[in-house]
User: What shape does this take?
Amino acid sequence: MQYRIVHQYDLTGFYVGEGQAWESPLEPGVYLLPAGSVETAPPDIAEGERARWTGAAWEVVPPEPPPLPDAELPRTAAELVTWAGYQRRVAEAAGVSMEGVIYASDVESQARITATLAYLERSGTPTARWKSWGGWFDLTPAQLVALGLLVGAHTQHCFDAEEAVLAAIAAGDLTTYAQVEAAFAAQMEG
Assistant: This one.
């Protein structure tokens, strides 16, 4: 059996390395691509850049911004509020686990869960194909409801944590990015 080199990406589309697409034993000349892979090679990238598959082509993602300036420096309340909002968005998008599978929980995924559930309920279709960080799954309407409730509870927990941190900022108890991060992490654990 022959194989071709393919280029694999993670659930967020970022290039992770090469893989192999083996020729189908039933259809000579047809190669079976593993999930999360394409035959198109990623572009050459400079140091710090990353390649991300968009669903149609590779794009070059610039390097992450340099680390924040000294996280211990005092900040304005507006800067701290912005930083707390950022901490919430990162936590909100971190994903949730259901039945041993990690599912995306970002704002786009929240909308997708709602729309897919409405589609299944109105069309009578018994299941929907769903992509998670662990691959593809068939989800029933009941599983989508459970996933939606789980993501909703996670999202609410993130907002509750942000609200508590914002109250501490308003009270003058938090004055640095590091304190905001620590307070947010403590609220998420609680």
